[in-house]
Amino acid sequence: MTSYSIVKTSLGELMLVANETELIGIYFLNRRHVPATRKSWTLDSRHPVLKQAAKQIKEYLDGSRSSFSLPLGSAGTDFQKRIWKQIARIPFGKTISYTDLAKRAGAPNAIRAAGAATGRNPLSIIVPCHRVLAKNNGLGGYAGGLKRKRHLLALESVRFDAR
Fold this sequence. Notes:
- This protein is α/β, with parallel strands linked by helices.
- The protein folds into two domains: 3-61; 78-155, Winged helix-like DNA-binding domain superfamily/Winged helix DNA-binding domain (Arc Repressor Mutant, subunit A).
- Helix content is 31%, strand content 16%.
- It is built from five helices and six strands.
- It has a four-stranded mixed sheet with strand order 3-2-1-4, covered by helices on one side.
- A hairpin with a 2-residue loop joins strand 1 (3-9) and strand 2 (12-18).
């Protein structure tokens, strides 16, 4: 069974999605890659994983949390999962380039594919794809929008080239 909730945050509304035991999605509403809710999904703001995720995300956004402790699950290709695993290892307040990300995932020549996989990250914020930057510390892209990426990086006191 899949459950979801809509959470209001300082970055706008998020749709949180969970199966019975794991958080499987965090999506900025009205942005790319937001799944359409299905008839089999249940709107359930009391789901324990969704409640815990909402609480931890709000704590992160208000500056009182720098890491997350949630049961996570995600569906993707083997390559996407390798990319997301490497993104999850980027510490709070640090960044890496898409080139470094591809290297860490064992595919040094797959920089564009690493960027595409980053954009498909289903656990935005918790798997911190905002910490992946373009060459020369440029912002690159962000499925949640560059304004949100700037906000998240500033929250972590990360310096970046705003061009």
